[in-house]
Amino acid sequence: VLVNTVASENPDEAGRYSMDVEYGQYSVILLVEGFPPSHAGIITVYEGSRPGTLNDFLGAMTEDDVMPEALRRFEAMVEEAARNAEAASQSAAVAKKSETAAASSKNAAKTSETNAANSAQAAASSQTASANSATAAKKSETNAKNSETAAKTSETNAKSSQTAAKTSETNAKASETAAKNSQAAAAESESA
């Protein structure tokens, strides 16, 4: 890529000259014999530029000539406003993320609160179940004591029944003996 080139052209006897140049920007310096070099200006040759005189190109308006300072400042303000709008948009996105995070935290806190309430209810249910179990255990203990007492009473009654059975057996034997004696006495009385 060429960055800098130098070209010169000498005019003819009538002061005319002609140069064919590529598109680009050129610095024009006039060299007159006996005088120091003079910077005439900068010309820009565009792809669509028409052939013209050096004065045409030197006098042509450039973008800098067309755009006054106030317009440049306005464009700078528009660019700054666009940057600020982008920053505001990013800040709004960050704020939205923060809002979403806060809502998630609120939901998590509500869930934790519900879980804590459920745990408290479960603990209360466990306490009630424990109390019911203690009552049932006490009732079982009482029933066991009552069963033990009933068993002892049954044992006592069984011993009493056994004693009564032996007494009945003894009485039955005595009755049998008495019956035999009566029968023998009756047979004796009959034979006499």
Automatic annotation (TrEMBL):
It comes from the Bacteria. Residues 89-137, 174-192 have a biased composition (Low complexity). Residues 89-192 are annotated as: Disordered. Residues 1-99 form the Lambda-like tail fibre protein N-terminal domain. Residues 143-173 have a biased composition (Polar residues). Pfam families: phage_tail_N. This is Phage tail protein. It comes from Escherichia coli.
